[in-house]
Amino acid sequence: MKKNIKRCNQGIWDESVPGIHFDQNGSSNYSKMFKEMELKYPQGTKGSYEFEKLVDKIKSISKNKQYDCLIGVSGGTDSSFLMHMAKKKYNLNPLAVTFDNGWASDTAVKNIKKLTSALNIDLETYVVNYEEMKDILKSYMKASLPWIDFPTDHAIKSILYKTAKREGIKYILIGHDFRSEGTQPYEWTYGDSKQLKFIQKRFGKEKIQSYPNISLFEQAYLSYIKNIKMIYPFFFLDYNKKNAQELLIKEYDWEYYGGHHHENIFTKYSIAYWMTKKHQIDKRLITFSAQIMSGEITRENALNKIYESPYDINLMERDKDYIIKKLDFTVEEYNKIWQNSNKSFKDYPSHFSAIEKIAFLIKPLMKFVLPQLPSFFFQVEARSKASKKT
């Protein structure tokens, strides 16, 4: 992390963040995007009122059904607290769904069991064939993309939509909070079903069979025709991660797993080792900046933390060795992949160009279809406006 680099004076977004622009006062378009999302999704009394209206709608639509909503769970803070809140505060009856890709930490698995058992929430676990999942993850590493854990993200989204369709559930609750996590540049994290198929065909050995690869068109059909909506409650509600953890520990004997997304070993490696060391991408720039904007941490504290290692260096190396062994790489194979030239998602076929082109056209219509706009729309618009001014 370079010290003599231009940074946003509102957060710590810097010149390494794709699509960043600074105005004459030193503020970035990312800080402006954050403020726009805050205006769009206010918290406090207004936010609570808006979410309570959504809850009433969820209960009305799901009357006489076994479940009224779906929650994707990982054993982490956000999804664990979301289960607690949905059941205890809003008297919802969710079905919890988790994806077993073979990499969840023991702590995360225990947390899921503790919460679902104590709250009397039914849990459905989708177990993918590990040899197939392993081969897909290896393919993404061979492709030298920055976000090699996209297959896990995509599988989770896929099983949520597919399970909601099967159970006749119209609302999926997601424990994401832009105020504490931020919005990552799509250059760092983008992927889709078309690209996944291409990468696996080019670099992999296993056929996609048990892996739940939902297509863009199927997702659009389920979202806009079948009216299955993803809702982000923490966009509306006052939510503090530290307070949430304290409550979970006190009421459910929940355990902390050591860091953001560290509940999954491969995800932790992807973010804190592969991205930072191979691609020189530090996602904490985005996370810390969001936390500064929301008042969770000070800018001075964030600047101090960003120059520290994401986690213990010795543990990082042990995790790397574990990754090599669990993926059945030889050290030579892994080192060869590590030395390959870094690639962008734009180096492989995807739906991105088409999505980007229609984003502006469909955004005005989305407010009539979706309760909440995906952050992608805010990012495309903010970056486009900034680039036109320069």
In short:
Helix 5 (130-142) crosses helix 9 (193-203).
Overall average residue pLDDT: 91
The tally of beta strands, per DSSP, is 5
Q: Could you name the CATH homologous superfamily?
A: HUPs
Briefly note the CATH topology name: Rossmann fold
Our estimate of the beta-strand percent is 5-15%
Give the total of domains. 1
What is the radius of gyration? 21 Å
How far is the first residue's CA from the last residue's CA? 26 Å
Along the chain, the helix and strand elements come as HHEHEHEHHEHHHHEHHHHHHHH
Helix share of residues? 55-70%
Which term fits the overall shape? globular
Strand order of the largest sheet: 3-2-1-4-5
Poorly predicted sequence stretches spanning 5 or more consecutive residues: none
CATH architecture: 3-Layer(aba) Sandwich
* CATH class descriptor: Alpha Beta
What does this structure look like?
There is one protein chain. The chain is mainly alpha-helical and 390 residues long. Helices cover 55% and strands 6% of the residues. It is built from 18 helices and 5 strands. The protein has helices at 29-40, 44-61, 77-89, 106-118, 130-142, 150-167, 178-181, 186-189, 193-203, 216-225, 241-252, 265-278, 284-293, 299-306, 313-326, 331-339, 352-369, 375-389; strands at 69-72, 94-100, 123-127, 171-173, 229-231. Helix 4 (106-118) links the parallel strand 2 (94-100) and strand 3. The longest helix is centred in the N-terminal third of the chain and has 18 residues, at 44-61. The two termini are 26 Å apart.
